[in-house]
Amino acid sequence: MNQYQDINTVVNRRQLLMQAGAGFGGIALNAMLAQQAEAAAKTKPKKPTQSFSPLSAKQTHFPATAKSVIFLFMEGGPSHIDMFDPKPALQKLAGKPLPDSFEKPITAMGEINAPLLASKRKWKQHGEAGTWVSDWLPNIATCVDDIAVVRGCWTNGINHAGGVCQMNTCIPLAGRPSLGSWVTYGLGTENESLPAFVVIQDNNGTVVNGPRNWGTAFIPAVYQGTRLNTGKEPISNLYRPDDVFVTQESGKLDLLAKLNERHAASRKQQSELDARIESYELAFRMQAAAPEAVDLTQETQATREMYGMDEKETQVYGTNCLLARRLVERGVRFVQLYNGAGSKWDSHSGIEKRHSALCRGMDKCVAGLLKDLKQRGLLDSTLVVWGGEFGRTPMSEKGDGRDHNPTGFTMFMAGGGVKGGQTIGGTDELGLYAVEDRMHVKDIHTSIYHLLGLSNMKLEYRHKGSPERPTLNEGEFMEKLVTG
């Protein structure tokens, strides 16, 4: 008797029970099924076909200081010289061309001879170390003793497509796995009932390059990021219809897994098939774990206010930041929160208006996240990374804007073993080139891996017979992040 005859037999028995004895048999059957469903709901569903999950937690290469990462990605390129890197010389030379002593840069829009644009920001030193922060970020300024400001960053991507791609994959061209997918591949997750790698945007716009930023390229697709929705329902189709029992759904998934595995057996090079099978199983497990994880009504009013969730300008990103805290709290390994999705930070003109609005919508949320993680004892194990794909030029564009600047910009890190209250590296007197303790994107990624206990040279995946490593055999760990 094959599996389809088994199904028919079950159906015939149910029909018999429903019809016999004026339906009293059906009442008993329904009671039994309800009991089974209740019992199943209280237990963790077993994976129907796999005894080992590719997302199971793995050993680190050496002791880690961080267990998870929250990457706050300001898409479009925030201006470092208006936020974290004050330049008195820029104020003095405003209106004049770039001095001849400077190497002429290559800019996206080609306005290398445009006059220098002064920053209109007011600057103040904060914290015990006296970290400089502009008046655009009054809330983040209160957290500087937990922050390492990294001023000497640089990259190769001169436009948004290349810059965003490189900040996510280490090269400005498509074809490499993302940072989050490498981390997930190397470490797995501590909660297999939630996605290991989560991506959330702050609007319905499209991040440059789209899903490629959280894709896996040649490593198995199961390690790719899962994008959650912006708004009241972060996960679509999460809840099981009321008229479908857990046991019914489990049975369907068992059958579907068998059919998928049979289909995938002759297509072993297509890891997308394994990822699809895993996604069905994860979706089933998420029905028990995810509703609680994304239920922000459990948070206190004080917490909501800390993140700015009840204010119009900060509601969306504050909600995303709070959701990120709840996810890492439950074992999610890597969370990436895009701010200004659709290159909103790209201020070729009107930088005062654009950046002012974006900072108001982000500053309180980020500070709330840092403070909340710290008060809950999570900052020690959670690495928070803030930054964009590049910075902005000291030269003006269109009179009141700034062009892309990949040769020198600022990011910051906090938590996860990072020593706060310090500034690492620096740019020249105008903020154009990184000149001190320079950190290329490969160094930034290497440092993130290192804090997670992963060696960028030992973490590898065999692709077409060759060992592929996340930073292409380059990159150095910035020891000052932990030593000061």
TrEMBL record:
It holds the Pfam family DUF1501. Signal peptide: none annotated. It comes from the Bacteria. InterPro entries: Alkaline_phosphatase_core_sf (IPR017850), DUF1501 (IPR010869), TAT_signal (IPR006311). Coiled coil: none annotated. This is DUF1501 domain-containing protein. It comes from Gimesia chilikensis.
